[in-house]
Amino acid sequence: MPGITREEVAHLARLSRLELTDEEIDHFAGQLDVILGAVARVGEVAADDIPPTSHPLPLTNVMRPDEVRESLGTEQALAGAPAAEQQRFRVPRILGEE
């Protein structure tokens, strides 16, 4: 597989609106070449008989099922609030909003 060229790195930098020096272009060309080589090696290892997965181990849902149950009433919920108004929590105004 041919390596990434300086011209390709410079083109990517222009597309990304990055201003790179010649030394940075050479440095990034070497790094990108290593990265592309590693990605190519993964492609060689992947076999058709192995299904794609998002996790190496199967995931199990540990959440309890939703159940409807009695909840706090308005008065109970507001009992510990520092300030309440019209059966709602009163909080300080922010950003000068009305």
Automatic annotation (TrEMBL):
Statement: the UniProt record of this protein carries the keyword Ribosomal protein: no
Pfam short name (any one): GatC
Annotated keywords: ATP-binding, Ligase, Nucleotide-binding, Protein biosynthesis, Transferase
Entry GO MF terms: ATP binding; glutaminyl-tRNA synthase (glutamine-hydrolyzing) activity; transferase activity
GO aspect biological process, one term: regulation of translational fidelity
Superkingdom as given in the UniProt entry: Bacteria
InterPro entries the record matches: Asp/Glu-ADT_sf_sub_c, GatC
Catalytic reaction list: L-aspartyl-tRNA(Asn) + L-glutamine + ATP + H2O = L-asparaginyl-tRNA(Asn) + L-glutamate + ADP + phosphate + 2 H(+); L-glutamyl-tRNA(Gln) + L-glutamine + ATP + H2O = L-glutaminyl-tRNA(Gln) + L-glutamate + ADP + phosphate + H(+)
Listed EC numbers: 6.3.5.-
Family: Belongs to the GatC family.
Oligomer status and interactors: Heterotrimer of A, B and C subunits.
Function according to Swiss-Prot or TrEMBL: Allows the formation of correctly charged Asn-tRNA(Asn) or Gln-tRNA(Gln) through the transamidation of misacylated Asp-tRNA(Asn) or Glu-tRNA(Gln) in organisms which lack either or both of asparaginyl-tRNA or glutaminyl-tRNA synthetases. The reaction takes place in the presence of glutamine and ATP through an activated phospho-Asp-tRNA(Asn) or phospho-Glu-tRNA(Gln).
Full protein name: Aspartyl/glutamyl-tRNA(Asn/Gln) amidotransferase subunit C
Organism: Allostreptomyces psammosilenae
